């Protein structure tokens, strides 16, 4: 069986864009409007000699009720349970928000290797946000751009080490 990598983070940080980048097909729905990506998606990834299964956790971005937040939390917990490695994604342009912390907490509790991705950092943007990410206690952030494909070399090295 392939090892499993779960992409975790609050809505709108670019999880589905990262999923699409790694799977190489438009399997995950990405949209500018919050709330579009609801279903969990999985794909097989071949990435520079590495092979793994990847899980994109859903957004439920419109979560305005306890039940939706609860569902998102459960879904994230389930993905983390299956994961050999977690990719924890933040938006480097906006920095670390309170909404990031419950997800970071779930990941920390899981105890599996975590790769911290400071996304939306293309062209050196979002360095301040990347520094803030240190405060999550999940290790050194990789400045990354899922949209532009920056940081893939560093991600590959981190995955190689973690898998
Ligand atoms: P998710 O909710 O975490 O799955 O986030 P999405 O992948 O749906 O992306 C949310 C928004 O961020 C979309 O408008 C994406 O186009 C945008 N986005 C994703 N990755 C990047 C990136 O690397 N740079 C920039 N500037 N925007 C990005
Ligand atoms: Mg999504």
Describe the structure.
With 163 residues, the chain is an alpha/beta fold. The protein has five helices and six strands; from the N terminus they run E-H-E-E-H-E-H-E-H-E-H. The model is unreliable at 33-37 (pLDDT under 50). Helix 2 (66-82) packs parallel to helix 3. It has one domain (4-162): Rossmann fold (3-Layer(aba) Sandwich). The chain binds guanosine-5'-diphosphate and magnesium ion (MG). Residues 15-16, 37, 59 line the site of magnesium ion (MG). Associates with the 50S ribosomal subunit.
Which ions and ligands are bound to the chains? guanosine-5'-diphosphate, magnesium ion
N-to-C order of helices and strands: EHEEHEHEHEH
User: Looking at this structure, what is the CATH superfamily?
Assistant: P-loop containing nucleotide triphosphate hydrolases
Instruction: Tell me, briefly, the overall form.
Output: globular
Low-confidence segments: 33-37
Oligomer: single chain
Number of helices: 5
Helical content stands at 25-40%
The overall number of domains is 1
Please give the CATH architecture.
3-Layer(aba) Sandwich
Q: Structural class per helix/strand content? A: alpha/beta
Protein name: GTPase Der
Domain EngA-type G: 3-163
Organism: Methylobacterium jeotgali
Subunit structure: Associates with the 50S ribosomal subunit.
Describe the structure concisely.
With 163 residues, the chain is α/β, with parallel strands linked by helices. Helix content is 33%, strand content 21%. Associates with the 50S ribosomal subunit.
